[in-house]
Amino acid sequence: MTSDTDSGTDRGALEYDVVVLGAGPVGENVADRARAAGLSVAIVESELIGGECSYWACMPSKALLRPVTARADARRVPGLQQSVQGPLDVPAVLAHRDYYTSNWQDDGQVDWLKSIDVTIHRGHGRLTGPRRVTVTAPDGARTTLTARHAVAVCTGSRAVVPDLPGIADAAPWTSREATSAKEAPGRLVVVGGGVVGVEMATAWQALGSRVTVLVRGEGLLPKMEPFVGEHVAAALTEAGATVRTGASVAAVDRDGTGLTVTLEGGEQLRADEILFAVGRAPRTDDIGLDTVGLKPGTWLSVDDSCRVTDVDGDWLYAVGDVNHRALLTHQGKYQARLAGDAIGARALGRPVDDTPWGAHAATADHAAVPQVVFADPEAGSVGLTLAEAERTGRRVRAVDYDMASVAGAGLYADGYRGRARMVVDLDTETLLGVTFVGPAVSELVHSATVAVVGEVPLSRLWHAVPSYPTVSEVWLRLLETYRG
Protein backbone atom coordinates (compact mmCIF):
# COMPACT_ATOMS: atom_id res chain seq x y z
CA MET A 1 0.00 0.00 0.00
CA THR A 2 1.31 3.48 -0.86
CA SER A 3 0.38 6.91 0.42
CA ASP A 4 -0.34 10.00 -1.64
CA THR A 5 3.08 11.36 -0.70
CA ASP A 6 5.01 8.52 -2.31
CA SER A 7 7.19 9.51 -5.24
CA GLY A 8 5.34 9.47 -8.54
CA THR A 9 1.83 9.36 -7.06
CA ASP A 10 -0.90 10.84 -9.24
CA ARG A 11 -2.98 13.22 -7.12
CA GLY A 12 -5.62 13.62 -9.79
CA ALA A 13 -6.91 16.57 -11.81
CA LEU A 14 -8.22 20.02 -10.93
CA GLU A 15 -9.81 22.69 -13.10
CA TYR A 16 -9.47 26.47 -12.91
CA ASP A 17 -10.29 29.36 -15.22
CA VAL A 18 -6.64 30.43 -15.35
CA VAL A 19 -3.37 28.66 -14.57
CA VAL A 20 -0.26 30.79 -14.05
CA LEU A 21 3.21 29.27 -14.35
CA GLY A 22 5.56 31.25 -12.13
CA ALA A 23 4.78 33.20 -8.95
CA GLY A 24 7.17 36.10 -9.27
CA PRO A 25 5.84 39.68 -9.43
CA VAL A 26 4.64 39.10 -13.00
CA GLY A 27 2.72 35.91 -12.23
CA GLU A 28 1.29 37.46 -9.07
CA ASN A 29 -0.04 40.43 -11.04
CA VAL A 30 -1.60 38.25 -13.73
CA ALA A 31 -3.28 36.26 -10.98
CA ASP A 32 -4.46 39.41 -9.21
CA ARG A 33 -6.05 40.92 -12.32
CA ALA A 34 -7.66 37.64 -13.37
CA ARG A 35 -9.13 37.27 -9.89
CA ALA A 36 -10.39 40.86 -10.06
CA ALA A 37 -12.34 39.79 -13.14
CA GLY A 38 -13.97 37.04 -11.06
CA LEU A 39 -12.00 34.12 -12.52
CA SER A 40 -10.64 31.19 -10.49
CA VAL A 41 -6.82 31.09 -10.57
CA ALA A 42 -4.10 28.57 -9.72
CA ILE A 43 -0.46 29.61 -9.59
CA VAL A 44 2.49 27.21 -9.82
CA GLU A 45 5.93 27.87 -8.35
CA SER A 46 8.95 25.64 -7.83
CA GLU A 47 10.95 28.12 -5.75
CA LEU A 48 9.99 31.03 -3.50
CA ILE A 49 6.70 32.83 -4.01
CA GLY A 50 7.74 36.34 -5.01
CA GLY A 51 10.35 35.25 -7.51
CA GLU A 52 13.68 36.66 -8.63
CA CYS A 53 12.91 40.29 -7.89
CA SER A 54 12.04 39.74 -4.25
CA TYR A 55 14.96 37.52 -3.27
CA TRP A 56 17.82 37.74 -5.78
CA ALA A 57 17.42 40.90 -7.86
CA CYS A 58 15.57 44.19 -7.32
CA MET A 59 15.07 44.13 -3.57
CA PRO A 60 18.41 42.76 -2.31
CA SER A 61 20.46 44.69 -4.84
CA LYS A 62 18.86 48.02 -3.96
CA ALA A 63 19.16 47.25 -0.24
CA LEU A 64 22.90 46.74 -0.79
CA LEU A 65 23.22 49.90 -2.88
CA ARG A 66 21.19 52.36 -0.83
CA PRO A 67 23.83 52.75 1.95
CA VAL A 68 26.47 53.15 -0.75
CA THR A 69 24.71 56.00 -2.56
CA ALA A 70 23.55 57.62 0.69
CA ARG A 71 27.13 57.75 1.96
CA ALA A 72 28.36 59.07 -1.38
CA ASP A 73 25.73 61.83 -1.33
CA ALA A 74 26.54 62.73 2.28
CA ARG A 75 30.23 63.02 1.46
CA ARG A 76 29.32 65.73 -1.05
CA VAL A 77 27.49 67.92 1.49
CA PRO A 78 29.59 70.55 3.31
CA GLY A 79 29.26 70.21 7.06
CA LEU A 80 28.46 66.52 6.79
CA GLN A 81 31.46 65.25 4.85
CA GLN A 82 33.71 64.62 7.84
CA SER A 83 31.06 62.63 9.66
CA VAL A 84 30.87 59.93 6.99
CA GLN A 85 34.48 59.25 6.05
CA GLY A 86 34.72 55.82 7.66
CA PRO A 87 33.91 52.47 6.05
CA LEU A 88 30.40 51.10 5.81
CA ASP A 89 29.20 48.77 8.54
CA VAL A 90 29.15 45.69 6.32
CA PRO A 91 27.28 43.36 8.72
CA ALA A 92 24.60 46.02 9.16
CA VAL A 93 24.27 46.50 5.40
CA LEU A 94 23.93 42.75 4.87
CA ALA A 95 21.39 42.49 7.68
CA HIS A 96 19.41 45.31 6.04
CA ARG A 97 19.54 43.33 2.79
CA ASP A 98 18.35 40.20 4.56
CA TYR A 99 15.42 42.12 6.07
CA TYR A 100 14.26 43.21 2.62
CA THR A 101 14.39 39.64 1.33
CA SER A 102 12.38 38.50 4.37
CA ASN A 103 15.41 36.28 5.09
CA TRP A 104 14.47 34.32 1.97
CA GLN A 105 11.15 33.25 3.47
CA ASP A 106 8.01 33.72 1.39
CA ASP A 107 5.30 33.56 4.07
CA GLY A 108 4.13 37.12 3.43
CA GLN A 109 3.80 36.57 -0.30
CA VAL A 110 1.92 33.32 0.30
CA ASP A 111 -0.48 35.07 2.66
CA TRP A 112 -1.18 37.77 0.08
CA LEU A 113 -2.04 35.26 -2.66
CA LYS A 114 -4.29 33.40 -0.27
CA SER A 115 -5.98 36.67 0.70
CA ILE A 116 -7.13 37.15 -2.91
CA ASP A 117 -8.18 33.50 -3.15
CA VAL A 118 -5.46 32.27 -5.52
CA THR A 119 -4.60 28.59 -5.11
CA ILE A 120 -0.86 27.86 -4.83
CA HIS A 121 0.65 24.66 -6.20
CA ARG A 122 4.24 24.08 -5.10
CA GLY A 123 6.35 22.20 -7.60
CA HIS A 124 7.59 22.16 -11.17
CA GLY A 125 4.90 22.91 -13.73
CA ARG A 126 5.01 21.66 -17.31
CA LEU A 127 2.57 22.09 -20.14
CA THR A 128 1.25 18.68 -21.17
CA GLY A 129 -1.01 19.83 -23.97
CA PRO A 130 -3.38 22.72 -24.73
CA ARG A 131 -4.72 24.35 -21.55
CA ARG A 132 -3.16 21.62 -19.41
CA VAL A 133 -0.33 21.85 -16.85
CA THR A 134 1.09 18.96 -14.83
CA VAL A 135 2.69 19.91 -11.53
CA THR A 136 5.30 17.65 -9.99
CA ALA A 137 5.54 18.39 -6.27
CA PRO A 138 8.83 18.20 -4.32
CA ASP A 139 7.83 14.71 -3.12
CA GLY A 140 7.31 13.55 -6.72
CA ALA A 141 3.51 13.51 -6.62
CA ARG A 142 1.75 14.83 -9.72
CA THR A 143 -1.36 16.95 -10.14
CA THR A 144 -2.88 17.88 -13.49
CA LEU A 145 -4.38 21.35 -13.80
CA THR A 146 -6.71 22.25 -16.64
CA ALA A 147 -7.38 25.87 -17.57
CA ARG A 148 -10.82 26.69 -18.93
CA HIS A 149 -9.63 29.94 -20.47
CA ALA A 150 -5.88 30.65 -20.25
CA VAL A 151 -2.44 29.49 -19.20
CA ALA A 152 0.03 32.31 -18.54
CA VAL A 153 3.75 31.51 -18.71
CA CYS A 154 5.51 33.85 -16.27
CA THR A 155 8.65 31.83 -15.57
CA GLY A 156 11.12 34.67 -16.10
CA SER A 157 14.74 34.40 -17.09
CA ARG A 158 18.02 33.12 -15.70
CA ALA A 159 21.58 34.40 -15.82
CA VAL A 160 23.77 33.09 -18.62
CA VAL A 161 27.15 31.60 -17.71
CA PRO A 162 29.45 31.11 -20.73
CA ASP A 163 30.85 27.67 -21.45
CA LEU A 164 34.52 28.33 -20.71
CA PRO A 165 37.36 25.99 -19.73
CA GLY A 166 37.27 25.42 -15.97
CA ILE A 167 33.91 27.10 -15.47
CA ALA A 168 32.15 24.03 -14.07
CA ASP A 169 34.58 23.74 -11.15
CA ALA A 170 35.03 27.46 -10.62
CA ALA A 171 31.57 27.95 -9.05
CA PRO A 172 31.16 31.43 -10.53
CA TRP A 173 28.72 33.96 -9.18
CA THR A 174 25.65 34.99 -11.12
CA SER A 175 23.32 37.78 -10.03
CA ARG A 176 21.85 35.43 -7.43
CA GLU A 177 25.12 34.85 -5.59
CA ALA A 178 26.12 38.50 -5.96
CA THR A 179 22.97 39.75 -4.24
CA SER A 180 22.87 37.09 -1.51
CA ALA A 181 26.55 36.70 -0.53
CA LYS A 182 27.21 36.59 3.21
CA GLU A 183 30.50 38.50 3.09
CA ALA A 184 32.49 40.72 0.78
CA PRO A 185 35.12 38.83 -1.24
CA GLY A 186 38.61 40.27 -1.02
CA ARG A 187 38.99 40.37 -4.81
CA LEU A 188 36.01 40.31 -7.15
CA VAL A 189 36.15 40.15 -10.93
CA VAL A 190 32.94 41.31 -12.62
CA VAL A 191 32.50 40.18 -16.22
CA GLY A 192 30.04 42.40 -18.06
CA GLY A 193 29.28 46.10 -18.12
CA GLY A 194 25.48 46.07 -18.14
CA VAL A 195 23.15 46.97 -15.29
CA VAL A 196 23.90 43.95 -13.07
CA GLY A 197 27.65 44.26 -13.56
CA VAL A 198 27.68 47.98 -12.83
CA GLU A 199 25.41 47.79 -9.79
CA MET A 200 27.22 44.87 -8.20
CA ALA A 201 30.62 46.41 -8.89
CA THR A 202 29.40 49.59 -7.19
CA ALA A 203 28.03 47.73 -4.17
CA TRP A 204 30.89 45.33 -3.47
CA GLN A 205 33.62 47.92 -4.08
CA ALA A 206 31.98 50.08 -1.41
CA LEU A 207 31.58 47.06 0.90
CA GLY A 208 35.30 46.35 0.85
CA SER A 209 36.09 44.24 -2.21
CA ARG A 210 38.78 45.12 -4.72
CA VAL A 211 36.74 45.05 -7.91
CA THR A 212 37.89 44.61 -11.49
CA VAL A 213 35.27 45.05 -14.22
CA LEU A 214 35.97 43.34 -17.53
CA VAL A 215 33.98 44.56 -20.53
CA ARG A 216 34.21 42.96 -23.95
CA GLY A 217 33.03 46.14 -25.71
CA GLU A 218 34.04 49.78 -25.56
CA GLY A 219 32.28 50.93 -22.39
CA LEU A 220 29.75 50.43 -19.63
CA LEU A 221 25.96 50.44 -20.03
CA PRO A 222 26.04 50.22 -23.83
CA LYS A 223 22.25 50.28 -24.21
CA MET A 224 22.08 53.82 -22.79
CA GLU A 225 23.50 57.05 -24.18
CA PRO A 226 27.33 56.82 -24.40
CA PHE A 227 27.93 59.59 -21.86
CA VAL A 228 26.18 57.53 -19.15
CA GLY A 229 28.80 54.77 -19.21
CA GLU A 230 31.57 57.35 -19.23
CA HIS A 231 30.28 59.01 -16.05
CA VAL A 232 29.77 55.68 -14.28
CA ALA A 233 33.18 54.30 -15.32
CA ALA A 234 34.90 57.44 -14.07
CA ALA A 235 33.11 57.19 -10.71
CA LEU A 236 33.93 53.50 -10.29
CA THR A 237 37.58 54.23 -11.03
CA GLU A 238 37.64 57.07 -8.49
CA ALA A 239 36.12 54.69 -5.93
CA GLY A 240 39.05 52.30 -6.42
CA ALA A 241 37.69 49.81 -8.92
CA THR A 242 39.47 48.89 -12.14
CA VAL A 243 37.44 49.10 -15.35
CA ARG A 244 38.92 47.41 -18.42
CA THR A 245 37.32 47.54 -21.85
CA GLY A 246 38.06 45.26 -24.77
CA ALA A 247 38.72 42.42 -22.31
CA SER A 248 37.35 38.88 -22.73
CA VAL A 249 37.69 35.91 -20.39
CA ALA A 250 39.13 32.76 -21.97
CA ALA A 251 39.27 30.42 -18.93
CA VAL A 252 38.70 30.27 -15.18
CA ASP A 253 40.49 27.98 -12.74
CA ARG A 254 39.77 27.64 -9.02
CA ASP A 255 42.47 26.35 -6.67
CA GLY A 256 42.88 26.25 -2.92
CA THR A 257 43.54 29.98 -2.60
CA GLY A 258 41.18 31.50 -5.12
CA LEU A 259 40.63 31.89 -8.84
CA THR A 260 42.87 32.42 -11.81
CA VAL A 261 41.08 34.29 -14.57
CA THR A 262 42.79 33.98 -17.94
CA LEU A 263 42.00 36.61 -20.54
CA GLU A 264 42.13 36.21 -24.28
CA GLY A 265 45.74 36.99 -25.09
CA GLY A 266 47.04 35.08 -22.08
CA GLU A 267 47.03 37.69 -19.28
CA GLN A 268 46.00 36.29 -15.90
CA LEU A 269 44.22 37.88 -12.96
CA ARG A 270 43.78 36.54 -9.44
CA ALA A 271 40.44 36.77 -7.67
CA ASP A 272 38.45 35.28 -4.81
CA GLU A 273 35.15 35.33 -6.73
CA ILE A 274 34.07 36.02 -10.29
CA LEU A 275 30.64 37.33 -11.27
CA PHE A 276 29.34 36.72 -14.78
CA ALA A 277 26.78 39.36 -15.70
CA VAL A 278 26.71 38.79 -19.46
CA GLY A 279 23.05 38.31 -20.26
CA ARG A 280 19.87 36.39 -19.56
CA ALA A 281 18.15 33.36 -21.08
CA PRO A 282 14.44 32.43 -20.88
CA ARG A 283 13.38 29.87 -18.30
CA THR A 284 11.39 27.94 -20.88
CA ASP A 285 13.64 24.92 -21.42
CA ASP A 286 11.65 22.48 -19.28
CA ILE A 287 8.07 23.72 -19.20
CA GLY A 288 6.63 21.49 -21.92
CA LEU A 289 6.61 23.92 -24.84
CA ASP A 290 7.11 21.01 -27.22
CA THR A 291 3.68 19.62 -26.24
CA VAL A 292 2.01 22.67 -27.81
CA GLY A 293 4.24 22.96 -30.87
CA LEU A 294 6.85 25.39 -29.55
CA LYS A 295 10.61 25.02 -29.22
CA PRO A 296 11.86 24.57 -25.64
CA GLY A 297 14.35 27.09 -24.31
CA THR A 298 13.24 29.94 -26.56
CA TRP A 299 11.80 33.40 -26.01
CA LEU A 300 8.07 33.44 -26.73
CA SER A 301 6.62 35.79 -29.34
CA VAL A 302 3.48 37.62 -28.24
CA ASP A 303 1.04 40.27 -29.40
CA ASP A 304 0.44 43.44 -27.39
CA SER A 305 -1.99 41.67 -25.02
CA CYS A 306 0.78 39.09 -24.39
CA ARG A 307 -0.94 36.21 -26.22
CA VAL A 308 1.56 33.80 -27.73
CA THR A 309 1.29 34.26 -31.48
CA ASP A 310 2.55 30.82 -32.52
CA VAL A 311 -0.16 28.79 -30.75
CA ASP A 312 -3.72 28.47 -31.98
CA GLY A 313 -6.75 28.93 -29.79
CA ASP A 314 -5.99 32.21 -27.98
CA TRP A 315 -5.34 30.43 -24.69
CA LEU A 316 -1.56 30.72 -24.12
CA TYR A 317 0.02 33.92 -22.77
CA ALA A 318 3.67 34.73 -22.08
CA VAL A 319 4.23 37.66 -19.74
CA GLY A 320 7.38 39.33 -18.44
CA ASP A 321 10.94 38.30 -19.27
CA VAL A 322 9.88 35.22 -21.24
CA ASN A 323 8.59 37.34 -24.13
CA HIS A 324 11.86 39.29 -24.32
CA ARG A 325 10.15 42.66 -24.80
CA ALA A 326 11.65 44.36 -21.74
CA LEU A 327 13.55 42.43 -19.06
CA LEU A 328 12.53 44.70 -16.20
CA THR A 329 10.30 43.92 -13.23
CA HIS A 330 8.22 47.08 -13.53
CA GLN A 331 7.67 46.48 -17.24
CA GLY A 332 6.73 42.85 -16.61
CA LYS A 333 4.20 43.93 -13.99
CA TYR A 334 2.78 46.44 -16.47
CA GLN A 335 2.38 43.66 -19.01
CA ALA A 336 0.83 41.46 -16.34
CA ARG A 337 -1.84 43.99 -15.44
CA LEU A 338 -2.80 44.35 -19.09
CA ALA A 339 -2.64 40.61 -19.81
CA GLY A 340 -4.67 39.72 -16.71
CA ASP A 341 -7.33 42.24 -17.72
CA ALA A 342 -7.33 40.91 -21.30
CA ILE A 343 -7.71 37.32 -20.06
CA GLY A 344 -10.65 38.41 -17.94
CA ALA A 345 -12.29 40.33 -20.77
CA ARG A 346 -11.96 37.45 -23.24
CA ALA A 347 -13.20 34.92 -20.70
CA LEU A 348 -16.28 37.02 -20.00
CA GLY A 349 -16.96 37.85 -23.65
CA ARG A 350 -16.21 41.53 -23.24
CA PRO A 351 -14.46 43.75 -25.82
CA VAL A 352 -10.66 43.73 -25.83
CA ASP A 353 -8.92 46.98 -26.76
CA ASP A 354 -5.44 46.01 -27.89
CA THR A 355 -4.98 49.01 -30.19
CA PRO A 356 -1.97 51.25 -29.40
CA TRP A 357 -2.37 52.72 -25.89
CA GLY A 358 -5.57 50.70 -25.47
CA ALA A 359 -6.66 49.20 -22.16
CA HIS A 360 -5.22 45.79 -23.05
CA ALA A 361 -2.12 46.75 -25.08
CA ALA A 362 1.43 46.86 -23.73
CA THR A 363 2.29 49.75 -26.03
CA ALA A 364 4.87 51.23 -23.68
CA ASP A 365 7.07 48.20 -24.35
CA HIS A 366 7.74 49.68 -27.78
CA ALA A 367 7.95 53.39 -27.09
CA ALA A 368 8.52 54.26 -23.46
CA VAL A 369 10.43 51.74 -21.36
CA PRO A 370 11.87 53.43 -18.25
CA GLN A 371 14.95 52.13 -16.46
CA VAL A 372 17.12 53.19 -13.53
CA VAL A 373 20.66 52.04 -12.79
CA PHE A 374 21.31 52.42 -9.07
CA ALA A 375 25.03 53.06 -9.32
CA ASP A 376 26.97 56.06 -8.03
CA PRO A 377 26.11 58.18 -9.95
CA GLU A 378 22.61 57.00 -10.75
CA ALA A 379 21.48 56.73 -14.35
CA GLY A 380 17.96 56.75 -15.71
CA SER A 381 16.31 56.78 -19.08
CA VAL A 382 13.04 56.31 -20.90
CA GLY A 383 12.26 55.85 -24.57
CA LEU A 384 14.80 56.02 -27.38
CA THR A 385 18.44 57.02 -27.35
CA LEU A 386 19.63 59.41 -30.03
CA ALA A 387 21.10 56.55 -32.09
CA GLU A 388 17.88 54.53 -31.83
CA ALA A 389 15.77 57.52 -32.82
CA GLU A 390 17.98 58.24 -35.82
CA ARG A 391 17.60 54.66 -36.99
CA THR A 392 13.82 55.13 -37.20
CA GLY A 393 14.29 57.68 -39.97
CA ARG A 394 12.68 60.54 -38.04
CA ARG A 395 14.02 64.09 -38.03
CA VAL A 396 15.42 64.35 -34.51
CA ARG A 397 17.54 66.61 -32.36
CA ALA A 398 19.42 65.85 -29.17
CA VAL A 399 19.37 68.57 -26.52
CA ASP A 400 22.03 68.19 -23.81
CA TYR A 401 22.56 70.02 -20.53
CA ASP A 402 25.32 69.86 -17.94
CA MET A 403 23.48 69.17 -14.71
CA ALA A 404 26.24 70.78 -12.67
CA SER A 405 24.80 74.11 -13.86
CA VAL A 406 21.42 73.44 -12.24
CA ALA A 407 21.08 75.33 -8.97
CA GLY A 408 19.23 72.54 -7.22
CA ALA A 409 21.89 70.02 -8.25
CA GLY A 410 24.64 72.16 -6.76
CA LEU A 411 22.73 72.38 -3.49
CA TYR A 412 22.07 68.65 -3.51
CA ALA A 413 25.76 67.77 -3.81
CA ASP A 414 28.93 69.84 -3.73
CA GLY A 415 30.76 69.26 -6.99
CA TYR A 416 27.70 67.65 -8.61
CA ARG A 417 28.54 65.95 -11.90
CA GLY A 418 25.88 64.82 -14.35
CA ARG A 419 24.33 65.26 -17.74
CA ALA A 420 20.86 65.23 -19.23
CA ARG A 421 19.67 64.65 -22.78
CA MET A 422 16.28 64.83 -24.39
CA VAL A 423 15.69 63.50 -27.91
CA VAL A 424 13.12 65.60 -29.76
CA ASP A 425 11.01 64.60 -32.75
CA LEU A 426 11.30 67.80 -34.80
CA ASP A 427 8.13 67.17 -36.79
CA THR A 428 5.84 66.72 -33.78
CA GLU A 429 7.95 68.60 -31.22
CA THR A 430 7.44 65.83 -28.70
CA LEU A 431 9.98 63.77 -26.79
CA LEU A 432 11.13 60.39 -28.05
CA GLY A 433 13.53 59.75 -25.20
CA VAL A 434 15.18 61.27 -22.15
CA THR A 435 18.34 60.24 -20.30
CA PHE A 436 19.90 61.45 -17.05
CA VAL A 437 23.09 60.57 -15.20
CA GLY A 438 24.03 62.05 -11.83
CA PRO A 439 23.17 61.83 -8.13
CA ALA A 440 19.43 61.52 -7.38
CA VAL A 441 18.33 61.34 -11.03
CA SER A 442 16.23 58.21 -10.42
CA GLU A 443 13.43 60.48 -9.20
CA LEU A 444 13.45 62.38 -12.50
CA VAL A 445 12.66 59.35 -14.62
CA HIS A 446 8.93 59.22 -14.01
CA SER A 447 8.39 62.82 -15.08
CA ALA A 448 10.25 61.95 -18.28
CA THR A 449 8.10 58.83 -18.68
CA VAL A 450 4.91 60.87 -18.39
CA ALA A 451 6.20 63.31 -21.02
CA VAL A 452 7.13 60.53 -23.45
CA VAL A 453 4.04 58.37 -22.94
CA GLY A 454 1.74 61.38 -23.04
CA GLU A 455 3.45 62.74 -26.15
CA VAL A 456 3.35 66.12 -24.43
CA PRO A 457 4.16 68.91 -26.89
CA LEU A 458 7.19 70.93 -25.86
CA SER A 459 5.05 74.05 -26.10
CA ARG A 460 2.88 72.64 -23.31
CA LEU A 461 5.81 71.18 -21.36
CA TRP A 462 7.18 74.72 -21.22
CA HIS A 463 4.33 75.50 -18.81
CA ALA A 464 5.20 72.62 -16.45
CA VAL A 465 7.20 74.73 -14.00
CA PRO A 466 9.80 72.85 -11.92
CA SER A 467 10.06 73.80 -8.27
CA TYR A 468 13.12 75.84 -7.31
CA PRO A 469 15.74 74.94 -6.23
CA THR A 470 15.47 71.25 -7.12
CA VAL A 471 17.38 68.91 -9.39
CA SER A 472 14.25 68.79 -11.57
CA GLU A 473 15.03 72.33 -12.69
CA VAL A 474 17.06 70.58 -15.38
CA TRP A 475 13.76 70.31 -17.29
CA LEU A 476 13.58 74.09 -17.62
CA ARG A 477 17.21 74.27 -18.71
CA LEU A 478 16.71 71.58 -21.38
CA LEU A 479 13.68 73.43 -22.77
CA GLU A 480 15.50 76.76 -22.73
CA THR A 481 18.36 75.17 -24.62
CA TYR A 482 15.95 73.77 -27.20
CA ARG A 483 14.22 77.11 -27.70
CA GLY A 484 17.57 78.93 -28.02
From TrEMBL:
Q: What is this protein called?
A: Dihydrolipoamide dehydrogenase
Disulphide-bridged cysteine pairs: C53-C58
Q: What class of enzyme is it?
A: oxidoreductase
The family line of this record is:
Belongs to the class-I pyridine nucleotide-disulfide oxidoreductase family.
Q: Which molecular function GO terms apply here?
A: dihydrolipoyl dehydrogenase (NADH) activity; flavin adenine dinucleotide binding
Keywords from UniProt, A to Z, are: FAD, Flavoprotein, NAD, Nucleotide-binding, Oxidoreductase
Recite the UniProt cofactor note for this protein: Binds 1 FAD per subunit.
Q: Which residues bind NAD(+)?
A: G192, G193, G194, V195, V196, G197, V198, E199, G279
Q: FAD/NAD(P)-binding domain: from which residue to which, for each copy?
A: 16-330
- Cofactor needs: FAD
- This protein's superkingdom? Bacteria
Q: Which ranges does the record mark as transmembrane?
A: none
Q: Which Pfam families match?
A: Pyr_redox_2, Pyr_redox_dim
**GO terms under biological process:** 2-oxoglutarate metabolic process
EC number assigned by the record: 1.8.1.4
What sequence ranges are listed for the domain Pyridine nucleotide-disulphide oxidoreductase dimerisation?
369-475
Residues binding FAD: K62, G125, T155, G156, S157, D321
